[in-house]
């Protein structure tokens, strides 16, 4: 059994390009599917957020028309209720000792664009994890968290690395559109990441060594399965 740290945004809103506040948080499908898949494989998963704040689920991610059916929406709601005791009191990100973990998983939702992208504690954790070749697995908007990681020389810690992320096309077509304050794909490319994208709204996972990334909510299960595979190697 491996110990996995799941870092979740503590944000409940995102400041948009026009200055308005857009309600946000974590995306239900991503957290639920990844958490359930990892736990069913026998691994321990601990939650951590900035400040130890209980994370907020993006209400849009529980709408049947957004997730495909009322049955799926109800499944996500039920699972979140089941793990609410863990979500209610996550670890404080600043207090995390990465030596006790084998992997870091970062689900998305627009929340990471509001806090994790510049969180120094997350940056420290990611640099330590990468230096120890531990699994780092962000997906959808989760790769925004990678932007927090700065190497000793001040450079982006994941420059030159192959990864994927929620694409600009997906953001425009089914995300926050023209009012998006910034695009994670663009930001990662600008920092020197080698971003590889697949078709919109289809599962797409990219692995380079210990870095495993997924493009969108549809990639949640495949990212978790790739993490399980990597932990077994």
UniProtKB/TrEMBL annotation:
GO biological process: one example: methylglyoxal catabolic process to D-lactate via S-lactoyl-glutathione
Keyword Nucleotide-binding (UniProt): no
GO terms of molecular function: glyoxalase III activity
One Pfam family recorded for the sequence: DJ-1_PfpI
InterPro entries attached to this UniProt entry: Class_I_gatase-like, DJ-1/PfpI, Prot/Nucl_acid_deglycase
GO CC annotation: cytoplasm
Keyword Lyase belongs to the record: yes
DJ-1/PfpI domain location: 28-229
Keywords: Lyase, Stress response
Family to which the UniProt record says this protein belongs: Belongs to the peptidase C56 family. HSP31-like subfamily.
The name this protein goes by in its record: DJ-1/PfpI domain-containing protein
């Amino acid at each position: 059994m491996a110990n996995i740290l799941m870092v979740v945004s503590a944000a409940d809103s995102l400041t948009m390009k026009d200055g308005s506040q857009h309600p946000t948080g974590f995306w239900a499908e991503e957290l639920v599917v990844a958490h359930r898949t990892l736990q069913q494989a026998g691994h321990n998963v601990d939650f951590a957020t900035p400040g130890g704040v209980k994370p907020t689920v993006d209400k849009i991610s529980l709408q049947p028309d957004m997730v495909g059916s009322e049955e799926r929406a109800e499944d996500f709601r039920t699972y979140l209720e089941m793990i609410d005791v863990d979500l209610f009191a996550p670890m404080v990100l600043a207090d995390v000792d990465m030596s006790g973990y084998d992997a870091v998983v970062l689900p998305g939702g627009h929340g990471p664009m509001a806090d994790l992208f510049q969180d120094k504690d997350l940056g420290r954790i990611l640099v330590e994890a990468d230096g120890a070749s531990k699994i780092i697995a962000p997906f959808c908007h989760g790769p925004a968290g990678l932007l927090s990681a700065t190497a000793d020389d001040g450079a982006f810690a994941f420059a030159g690395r192959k990864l994927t992320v929620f694409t600009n096309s997906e953001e425009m077509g089914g995300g926050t559109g023209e009012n998006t304050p910034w695009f994670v794909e663009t930001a990662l490319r600008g920092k020197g990441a080698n971003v590889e994208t697949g078709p919109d709204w289809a599962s797409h996972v990219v692995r380079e060594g210990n870095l495993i990334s997924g493009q969108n909510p549809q990639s949640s299960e495949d990212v978790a399965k790739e993490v399980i595979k990597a932990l077994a190697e």
